[in-house]
Amino acid sequence: MQPYIFPYIGYFNLIEACDTFVFYDDVNYIKKGWVNRNRLLGNGQALRFTVPLVNASQNSLICESRLHNFSAFKTDFIKMTERCYSHAPYFESTMGYIETVLNATHQNIADVAISSVREFYRLLATERHFLRSSLHSPETRGMGKAERLIAISKQLNAENYVNAMGGMDLYCRDDFSAAGVRLEFINPQILPYGQRKTEKFIPGLSIIDVLMNNNADDIKKMLFSYERV
To answer: Which of 7, 66, 72, 221 is deepest in the core (most CB within 10 A)?
Structure first.
């Protein structure tokens, strides 16, 4: 899966369904996607934030999409998060997580996004196995979409390949089955939780919103709230 910045809980459902999770960081950057954008909750509504990039283009790989004026973004984002969540029950621990991610040395948006996932699991004291396609399987670049995913799966001796629900429109189970790989999809079952200053639960926000409002035990339950299809 492409690396997304502080992704929503459904992204982590996909990770939980895997023994090995591959950050697909050497595919083309997606404009107006979730690679460098997400949403927080402020004044009862979803507020979008965007990490600025240098000449963001769909002709550039995610791992080659360089950060633009990241220091200014960090300052503004910390202030935005404080305005949104200063009275949240888990404000201090979540701000520590955010600052750890943003204060590390990053060269591109893939670095930041991957860090936001890895540090989440460190915060929960949970081990997961991660790889980056740019480092683990660069020789597969240039293959067809399904062909490359099958090749990476075979490299890892994987019997199953798990994708997000959006992949149902892109990939055929028979193509994977013919190569000896079972194709499955994950359908997240997002559990409502308490959010501040909103009458109606707003799903699909950044994992930051989940961390601000829930303890570790409740979050771990959310991680396993999905179905395979």
So the answer is: 7
